[in-house]
Amino acid sequence: MRVLNDVGEYGMHEYMSEIAHSGEDVVVPMGEDDCSVVKIDGTYLIQSCDAISSKPLTSKYGKRNPKGVANYLVQANLSDILSSGAIPQGIHTLFEFPSSYSYDKYKEFVKGFSEITNHYNISWLGGDLKETEGTRLAAMIQGTVSNKEQIRTRAGAEVGDVIIVTRNIGTINAATFFIDKYDSISKKDEEYLYEKTKMPEAPYEESIYMTKNNIGNGGLDITDGLGMDLKKLADKSDVGLRIKESKIPMDDQVVKIINQYTEYHPSAFAFTLGGDWQSVVTMSPDDWNEIKDPVNNVGKATKIGRVIEKSRGLEYITDEGARTTLPTGGKEIFTGSTSFSSKTEELLNKYQQTTKKA
To answer: Can you tell me which residues bind Mg(2+) 2 (predicted)?
Structure first.
């Protein structure tokens, strides 16, 4: 008998995509992207849904309060539609709690959820509330764009595009890795990393700026590791990529901590697992030259490479200038994988092996 571990997450997605029906107004159907896109009376409705563990990974360190969990749920959904170019509009929720759950914590959670969605001018539209044995949290978010050119998809990258990443990446993975694994890390460094896990944010300002200025061809959020997500972009767009290790944007203090306590290259932490809720966007060189200063005035965006011909594959240029193959490991569920820290260490070691062979 085959079980889900035999098929894996992407095999499961593929089967659902094969049997799902899509109407004539569906622009981006199931399986093609993180978000669906439906055309309704000249407006494009972009939707996505995401669920989180009742105890997100970083909560086990005792630092994530109910508002932090609410933020995690909002950002997990928000990052999807922002990377697709949508202007967020509304969100529906499904909250499941045991009857013994603390009412004070419940109030703190829902108040936090309301405050965070209000911060982004997202209307909380309702949803469903259930009694269960465990806690389960899910949401479906909606946004719109007024024209098709504003939509950024995995299939939208074009040869010649520059590839940009918003803000910093690798931070959450590094933080959870160190806190889980190292007893000798200094209290100061530990507290710095703890702070980084509390309230990560998706690139709202940067994405809205690009959408309003009709900037961007390809796009997706970084949730499974930079390499794995870049491969999704390359596969759907039928292109190759060239990425420079030296351009991967990371928090300066996190880089110092990585260098102090490990032999790993700091960029390796961007190529393991996600959690920073950032986006990859591709655009023409002219568009990048036009927006790089203003978008960095409202947030941060960094050029990390180029879209190249498919025949040239997925190139990775190391700090020393050597060429190798882009590391594409990352997070995939339904694989029977080991614990987070073991999986992260496995991916870090693979990154080191790949780049040292160059």
So the answer is: 50, 80
How much is the pLDDT for 49? 97
Domains of the chain: which residue ranges? 4-149, 152-356
Whole-model pTM over 0.90 = yes
Was 128 annotated as part of a binding site? yes
Is 223 labelled a binding residue? yes
| Pairing label, strands 26-28, 36-40 | antiparallel
Q: List the CATH code of the domain at 4-149.
A: 3.30.1330.10
Q: Is 99:162 a contact under the CB 8 Å cutoff?
A: no
The answer on whether 136 is annotated among ligand-binding residues is no
**Mean pLDDT for all residues in the chain:** 92
Beta-ladder partners of 279: 221
218 touches 154 (CB < 8 A): yes
What pLDDT, in 10s, does the model give residues 25-48? Answer: 999 999 899 999 999 999 999 999
Enumerate the β-bridge partners of residue 141.
Answer: 48, 91
Q: Is 286 annotated as a binding residue?
A: no
- Is 224 flagged in the annotation as binding? yes
Tell me: is residue 127 an annotated ligand-binding position: yes
22 is in an annotated binding site: no
- Closest by Cα among 205, 230, 235, 254 to 306: 230
pLDDT at 298 exceeding the cut of 90 = yes
Confirm or deny that 100 is annotated as ligand binding: no
Q: What are 36's strand-pairing partners? A: 47
Burial class of 136 by CB neighbour count within 10 A (0 to 12, 13 to 18, 19+): middle
34 assigned ligand-binding residue: yes
The annotation status of 48 as a binding-site residue, yes or no, is: yes
Q: Both tokens of residue 80? A: 């999807």
Q: What pLDDT score does 275 carry?
A: 85
239 touches 217 (CB < 8 A)? no
CATH class for the region spanning 152-356: alpha beta
3-class secondary-structure state, position 288: helix
For helices 204-212 and 285-298, angle between their N-to-C axes, nearest 10 degrees:
140
The whole-number average pLDDT for the span 116-131 is 98
